[in-house]
Amino acid sequence: xxxxxxxxxxxxIRYLQPLPLSSLHQLLQHQHIIQHDMPRRLQDYHxxxxxxxxxxxxxxxxxxxxGLTRVSADMSRQEILSYLGQDYQQGxxxxxxxxxxxxxxxxxxxxxxxxEHERLAQTTERxxxxxxxxxxxxxxxxxxxx
Length: 146
Fold this sequence. Notes:
Layout lengths: L2 H14 L4 H10 L9 H26 L11 H13 L3 H13 L8 H8 L3 H21 L1
Helix pairs in contact: 1-7, 3-5, 5-7
């Protein structure tokens, strides 16, 4: 798992709506994702695990909606990378957003460079950045509506 990336995700979510980090922390406590009496490292672990689970669940829901195969942790890197191209052939920005979030934060892929991601998705870096921003908004909504 990439610990820095999940922290970056939480900070990006925080900036979508001005929300102090302590308020985001309280929201996560209120939704029973973390408990106030947990050690900080354990809280971080629970948040990371929850974020990754949400991303995987939403990504797979979007894939199944379009009749695509679910992605699982036991798949090889090559299998997962071959599925990324399918995500962008559907023309659905929600699927594309969860796809970018999956690549960036799931921890299942060691590292996918931006040029490699552009090639697989057959799109531009700018579009990938826009989809990631949209993915942050979707994650923000998921946290608020949970």
